[in-house]
Amino acid sequence: MAAAAATAQPGLDAREWDEAAYRRGILRERDLSCRTLFRAVFYDQRDEADPDVLLAAASSDGSLASFSLSSCISSSASAHAAPQPAAAALVDPVCIVQAHSGPVYDAKFYNDPIQPLLFSCGDDGHIRGWRWHEMQSCLLPLSLQGDHVEPILDLVNPQHEGPWGARSPIPENNAIAISKQDGSLFAAAGDACAYCWDVESGKCKMTFKGHTDYLHSIAVREANHQVVTGSEDGTARIWDCRSGKCTQTIRPVQNKKFEGSWVGCIAIDASESWLACGTSSGISVWSLLSNECIFNADCGAPVQDLLFDKNQILAVGAEPALSRFTINGVVVSQIKCAPPSAFSVSMHSSGMAAVAGHGGLVDVISGFGSHLCAFRCRGLDR
């Protein structure tokens, strides 16, 4: 009778139950839901023959992965107009490498016309450079990827020497920026210092000291030979790249709305005249020419990344929304996005925006505000 019942209702037959596979599935799902993408950046090379748009994603599991946007769109063709995290498709990357031994906090492209490079930095204190074309031409199956690509550059933050010769832990790198003029690499580190690296020699050219707490972000102001840093100490500082000295300190936290907050992200516009600072509760925009605050906007939640899109500002943070502001602080639009907490927003020259964050989620939004696709990035889980 029992055999007959099992035959009649095969779904209740536990004789083929695989407990180990069930456990692996539960752990994989938990890992996926807890994964965070700290950066998703477009590879935006307009003269490339391949019309497909490519995206690189830096993850909390230490991986660096590349994705084909056409594949992501086809995989998530049934995504809702206002995507829900649970509805996002799980997408396999074109290539995935174990880039760092801890979370990868930032990734930036250096668009050399002959050999474009992808730089990454993370919690292990390393900055590594990867040949982008080598990552894209990978033919190995996904199950064999991870350590199949070697970095062409590996820089490590200096350790500080204490009493009796004791050395400090290697400070993490929270953000990087690249100078288009001379190819110098700048890093915002966890020891309250910023470092300038010579990529050719692999040596640290200069250290910028002055902040009293760890750095969150860094940006290059090319025309003035300056870098700007944002810190947990609540200030943004402007540094002279030739002398290494701080030339200006900006304090958005002086406003009562921002007391006790940090400067978590910064952005400089194309004319290098405006500076936007994202803090624990809003946005503060400053004129770099007059050193005056243009506006402070209270967003009600931490702003975790922002950028300039011509004369407007795009910002994301601890709420599932992509907000657009005018340079005077007027809210133009707010678009709901898939990540419940977003850590990255990037723009493509076509007008697309990619928002990435908690849950391993990426939401790609067109220049008209429609959702092209929302997907989860598969990690290094086997």
From TrEMBL:
One of its GO terms (cellular component) is THO complex. WD repeats lie at residues 208-249. GO terms for biological process: mRNA export from nucleus; negative regulation of abscisic acid-activated signaling pathway; protein ubiquitination; ta-siRNA processing. Gene3D superfamilies: YVTN repeat-like/Quinoprotein amine dehydrogenase (2.130.10.10). PANTHER family: THO COMPLEX SUBUNIT 6 HOMOLOG. Belongs to the WD repeat THOC6 family. This is WD repeat-containing protein DWA1. The lineage of its organism: Eukaryota, Viridiplantae, Streptophyta, Embryophyta, Tracheophyta. The gene is LOC125509139.
